[in-house]
Amino acid sequence: MSAPFPTSRAPAAGDALAKRNALVLACAQAFGGANPAIVVSLGGLVGQALASNKELATLPVSLLNLGLALGTIPAAVLMRRAGRRTGYVVGAGIGVFGGCLAAFGIASANFVLFCFGTLIAGLYGSFVQSYRFAATDAASDRFKARAISWVMAGGLVAGVIGPQTVIWARDLIETAPFAGAFIGQAALALISMAVVSALRPTPVVDAPKAGGRPLSQIVSQPRFIVAVVAGLVSYGLMSFTMTAAPLAMIGCGHPVGAAALGIQWHILAMFGPSFFTGSLIARFGKAAVTAAGLLLIALSAVVGLSGITIGHFWITLILLGIGWNFGFIGATALVTECYRPEERTKVQAANDFMVFGSVAIASFSSGKLLNVGGWDNVNWVVFPPVFVALGLLAWQRQVKAVVPAE
């Protein structure tokens, strides 16, 4: 099915510009995507050491997700006015500052400063998350899903770079344990700044100079609502379950090392399929791959409810990661059907604000639900949102089947 709106460029030979920019953004994702991995790995440990109220130990990680949600709209405004490349350079600069501030907070034993550092790291993350959309700016309809997959594949490398930075840099400053890892985080953002500087602009060829339709009109489209709900459910449930899983494993008597390995397998499962997700979308369609991802997320909850051995937890996390990959990339590709070229930045920002706002809420609530209701309740919560999202996808497919294309 063809896109509902004209593309923003003439059909370049073989999508040459789109492929080049997608590779640049995949490299930037490899470095920028390590930013949250470092905060998630160490935020709770540092919080436990610095916070006077130990119930606030996970606050730095929650603030990372909050910053990610809050930064989406300002990032979009900046990129709309100054362009993608300038916006991403500024975003990387914010990442450098956030890493340095977090390291200084640790060195000065100041929990508030450390929290501000992780919040700013989240603001940087809002720029990184939009790389997947930027990869489609110059892409033909045929290449868009693959461009998104290429960028997401950079996250697989980030899943290695982030933990390795923690391992090799955490003791860089002997008097301030873990501060070195956040200096490493700042260094990775600096490298990302150099990478995104190689991004080439994608001029809009045939789009009007006006800003397009009002945002309220765009986001009220049924197909946009379906795409957002699918992305929100995929990412929100992944974050919700992933946050609770290591705590649940330790609570069930499993060693910390087993929990860490479970998260490592989860990250690999999240980004590994990106090498072929775009091809699956090209063959089976965006909605079908998105639905498959949601079903895998539901299956992960079934496994989680069936036992509490290390194997059960690991399989749950692996299925959750693959389900997130299919669901989130598919939903992202669905969003690209909903806007005209001149509308892309504001629509992408609205999508990410809603999706990552849900992630922040999931992060805040996951640990509390685990403490109150246990691991079983965490898994039972997965099913209703998945069924709602699947129902909306089925409804949208039926609407497309009965309503003739314009």
From TrEMBL:
InterPro entries: MFS, MFS_dom, MFS_trans_sf. The chain crosses the membrane at residues 61-79, 86-105, 111-135, 147-169, 175-199, 224-250, 256-276, 288-308, 314-335. Keywords: Membrane, Transmembrane, Transmembrane helix. One of its GO terms (molecular function) is transmembrane transporter activity. Residues 223-406 form the Major facilitator superfamily (MFS) profile domain. It holds the Pfam family MFS_1. This is MFS transporter. It comes from Microvirga aerophila.
